[in-house]
Amino acid sequence: MSxxxxxxxxxxxxxxxREKYFGNVVTFSPKVFVPLTFACRDKCGYCTFVKELxxxxxxxxxxxxxxxxxxxxxxxxxxxxxxxNGATECLFTLGDRPEAKYPAAKRELEEKLGCASTVEYVxxxxxxxxxxxxxxxxxxxxxxxVEELKLLKKVSASQGLMVETTSERLMEPGMAxxxxxxxxxxxxxxxxxxxxKAKVPFTTGILVGIGDTAEERVKSLLEIRxxxxxxxxxxxxxxxxxxxxxxxxDTRMKDDRxxxxxxLVRAVALARLCFDEKVTIQVPPNLTPGEEVEDGWRALxxxxxxxxxxxxxxxxxxxxSPECEWPALKTLSAVCREEGRSLVPRLAAHxxxxxxxxxxxxxxxxxxxxxxxSDAGGFGRGMHxxxxxxxxxxxxxxxxxxxxxxxxxxxxxGAVEPGSSSRNSRDNNNSNNNDRISSSRNKINRxxxxxxxxxxxxxxxxxxxxxxxxxxxxxxxxxxxxxxxQCGDIVSYVINRNINYTNVCEFTCHFCAFSKGKFGEEATRxxxxxxxxxxxxxRTKEAWDKGATEVCMQGGIHPDFTGESYxxxxxxxxxxxxxxxxxxxxxxxxxxxxxxxxxxxxxYLKMLKDAGLGSLxxxxxxxxxxxxxxxxxxxxLNSEEWLSVxxxxxxxxxxxxxxIMFGHVDSETHVSWSKHLLAxxxxxxxxxGITEFVPLPFVHFKAPIYEKGRARKGPTMRECVLMHxxxxxxxxxxxxxxxxxxxxxxxxxxxxxxxxAGCNDVGGVLMNESITRAAGSTFGQEFNVVEMEALIxxxxxxxxxxNTLYENANEERRMVGIENAHKSVVVNFAxxxxxxxxx
Length: 839
Fold this sequence. Notes:
about 40% helix; 9-stranded parallel sheet; alpha/beta
């Protein structure tokens, strides 16, 4: 194939293979480059990175010379600056074991740095970078043993070693690797084998044009593939770099011919065709040959690459090729977009090593740091916003949670915002680009059409959750069009009050910071409490006097509560305000109440309805995928049980809402979300009993599971927007026409942005919401009627006060709400007022 196929034909075949697995996403890793030492035991014929030392020097000369190794503080200074500028990777690149050649290097390691070897010092520095900055180390430390790889695995997310070539000919006199024993092919291939044994996500690759022939390049790729196909660890190879030789001054090869773009494209295409479809193929963009660099990028994009490697966001140069500057991300993104791709940040370890497979590949001490930086697809978050955090303008920076302003690298759609390229002004109608966009868009369109026909499968919905860049914008526009068709410009809200009657709970929901019980004690902000009937009645009356039409009552599963307790709560609320709609009790509470009284769930629901229950909140659903539930709420209702309770409520004439609580653990994927939405769709198809869908982004700040390092920091902004948009597309056509934005989770301003992605409701004013606040959210206390209507109006929509069942509320209620908008409610925290406190 290599000899008989033209470069164009090879590139076409390779690009088709890439598209099947990677779609239209092309990645890069925002990094800082730490050249821990320029000293090396070898000196390749093309290398300017290595700075040779005197093999023997007296003590006076040694005193005058600068340090051979960067100090720990120098390393941390670079990492901290990288974090501020949006980097997530700290690349350690260095010479191979300089202490084996230079006594001075050995002395410095032992006497100044307290380490026996370079590898040990790298591990020491990487550990500090990981723990003190959160950046993920990627270590290129040369030829390593299994034990050394395992040592570095404890402090890094990934490692790498370029094979470069498997041609022994290049070890001969006058060739690139002459007298460079660490470059002997068998030695380098053995390190790859060792990486597999150590279960390390690993990067390798070839150099094109260092004196190798086209045939030798193919043989090198095949030798690496042979290792990649080994059953014992071969799948550790996550990335193949195809890097072109650049002739440099002050090297033995300064006059050698550089590889052409055609040779590089050909090598890239062969690499893509050679390896398993899930292996990433990378080319460094700053080394692209030819005068028209952007045209070179286009050729490489269409030859099978899906990654540009590490790019420093304006912090450090490429110390290996300092004469070649990193490209501007916006320019690179513009070229990617013209070729039908979205430029997306990734982490040091590629997505296939993150998420569900993380435990197999990432050390347990490193994994929490990976989760903090990753989204549900295993890519980098790109934006540092999290649900519940303080709102800032959707510009270039946000708070990382430590009070440090951090640059955002992507826009809401998850891709780097494109700038301008050389083609922007002269060719906006490139036919190849249009074809590529059409190919991607056709798949998405087919999935949306199936949503509209209520026949979409899990695979169809998961495809929509994967969209980024222009495809994300397309999905949102389709959702907004359906919102307009179903709801017009009306945006509804309700005047309500949350009454959380107890925070004592016997269940072990690992995400819950509200509960006070056997698991939640260390996480809750407040003392355990339990409201008495008098306080419930008082709060209900106070809410009515402020214009409320609804009280939403929920709480922990108190070990002393029975089904009679919930009936008493209903009676208390109705005593406080007889005309108040009581929206109360999660399916878990219903199950608990029925079980405690030993009555069928339907019979218990009828008892509650007769006592004045108006509707049920569809909470405690979390994610309707039992693999996820086992991780986050192992003793809660399983998916089938939750659906059964809600179905029973519908059958006795009690309407319910529906929710999803998303953005947390490794087992929670786009497939999990898709299963959840389709379960709600099928339930409503059967019962017609769901009034609304309310996505609830996970608020991580005080959640026990996050504090233990087992959860992400909530969904990204992109994921939040998609959940609402896809919720509209999947559930709207079956008749669930109300999609609500949760302002306590999103923040009021960001919640209003969701009105352009399928939402038609902004929920309730929520006098003293407790659960989201307990998790650490900035929001949750009352957002009054005047503020709510102003928010809706600023979005160009028409506000409408509704009741719980989405009927128009009485105008008198609205006027009372306006008159009392700035009147505070009495909260009665634990330990004061009428609130009963349990010790």
